[in-house]
Amino acid sequence: MLKRVVSISLGSSQRDHVARAEFLGVPFELSRIGTDGDMEKMISLIREMDGKVDAFGLGGMDLYLRVGSRKYLLRDAARVVRAAQKTPIVDGGGLKDTLERRIIAKLAAQGFDFRGKKALVVCAVDRFGLAEALAEAGAQVTCGDLIFGLGLPIPLRSLPTFRRVAYVVAPVVRLLPFKMLYPTGKEQEKVEPRYTRFYDEAEIIAGDFHFIRRFMPERLTGKIIITNTVTPKDIEELRKREIKTLITTTPEFQGRSFGTNVLEGVIVVLSGKRPEELTREDYNTLLDRLGFEPRILNF
């Protein structure tokens, strides 16, 4: 029986997509619906489809700011999640903390040498597992949360520094309107080069693509980009900027990579559990069976 996972996103409707795929013998329809930054429309769509689809992905928005084992619930996200009374809803956080760690370890095992490379993780509260995995693989990690999230040109040059700052700032930031923290709707279509020196000094730029794209310079010559949700248009944009390698941590489905929220929805459906019941071991067991591989494009 066909399972449906629908990502309701605060992002641009121009990035909408539908694909069919099969996981562990189960057929799925994966779809993404952008609401162009309209949170009320997002809530309305979730209410309309609640109980009629198998899982919701929360796109263009995190449920939590994550710092190590601590989680800080975003006030705006809590309002959205309450609209789903029957269908489970996920933001991709569990998959980011497992799949993206595995991808870095797998790349290192395959001979990709992270040691000593300067890596800019544009938002570590969104991708803490990725930041930690890069550091464990030997990269020199800079967290860009204050730069790309709050517009303060202050790099956090290590994970211990990031943790100390995040423990203080996150309880306040979680109360802010989400549109102040992340590009939504038509803001996702704009590229306004800023903070160029932080891009220039990095050999690896990692994290959410909208955070990377928002301020990226005209040239990214020789850079390695590690991200997830990209369309063919995004790939062409990166090629023109002369990047060396694009690595997407989620596989390609009919021309694009879906967000972690969509694939986390797939895992929830396959597991037969509620999202809050899933452990890291559950994720890793299913990921072993699914065999997801990163997509690596060399230009």
Walk me through what this model shows.
There is one protein chain. The protein is globular and about 50 Å long. The strands form 4 sheets. A 6-stranded mixed β-sheet has the order 9-8-10-11-12-15. A 5-stranded mixed β-sheet has the order 2-3-1-4-7, sandwiched between helices. A two-stranded antiparallel ribbon has the order 5-6. The longest helix is centred in the middle third of the chain and has 15 residues, at 159-173. It has 12 helices and 15 strands. The model has no long low-confidence stretch (mean pLDDT 93). With 299 residues, the protein is α/β, with parallel strands linked by helices.
Helix- and strand-based class? alpha/beta
Mind describing the biggest β-sheet? 6 strands, mixed
The SSE order reads EEEHEEEHEHHEHEHHHEHEHEEEHHE
User: Low-confidence runs (pLDDT<50, min 5 residues)?
Assistant: none
The helix tally amounts to 12
Strand content: 15-25%
Principal-axes shape call = globular
Average pLDDT score: 93
User: What integer value in Å does the Rg equal?
Assistant: 18 Å
Tell me which oligomeric state these chains represent: single chain
Spell out the blueprint of helices and strands.
Layout: E1 3-9, E2 17-23, E3 26-34, H1 39-49, E4 55-59, E5 64-67, E6 70-73, H2 75-81, E7 89-90, H3 93-96, H4 99-109, E8 118-121, H5 128-136, E9 140-143, H6 145-150, H7 159-173, H8 196-201, E10 204-206, H9 209-214, E11 224-227, H10 232-240, E12 245-248, E13 252-253, E14 256-257, H11 260-271, H12 280-290, E15 295-298
Parallel strand pairs: 1-3, 1-4, 4-7, 8-9, 8-10, 10-11, 11-12
Antiparallel strand pairs: 2-3, 5-6, 12-15, 13-14
Helix pairs in contact: 4-5
